[in-house]
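Pilot study result, target chain (144 residues):
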Amino acid sequence: MKNLVKSAGKTADVVQADIEKVLQTYEAALNASDTDTVLTAFAPDGVFMAPNSPSTVGADAIRAAYSGIFQMITFDTELTVEEIVQVAPNWAFVRTSSNGHVTVNAIKQRVPDANHELFIFHQGDDDAWKIARYSFATTNPLPR
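Predicted structure:
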């Protein structure tokens, strides 16, 4: 389900395509453990909010967070866009789901990984859409 409104100068389809391209870049960077490319998807003042962790604010903190994540786990996941809603000319939110696996690097154990995610995108002065805020939570059942 996709719900878009028109933006000034761009059609809803163009906005959707621009945002989906950023998400594809982000997904590829996750699966490649590529911190530098992850950072290209985020706004310089972006915020990453992982479960059970304080918010990570700004490019330097996001770089450190993803570098640490990529040391601990390797992703093999696929994002699915569930909804894109443009709420203002330069702001949109995106709801996604992801499914796949992560490998816990220390013990080389591959485990299922599934999440639902909420991204808030901002279109900057350079006309590029970037992740301004990102939060996720697992959809896997709790261990027994």
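One observation from the pilot: Residues 1-8 have pLDDT under 50 and may be disordered. A full batch analysis is planned for the follow-on phase.
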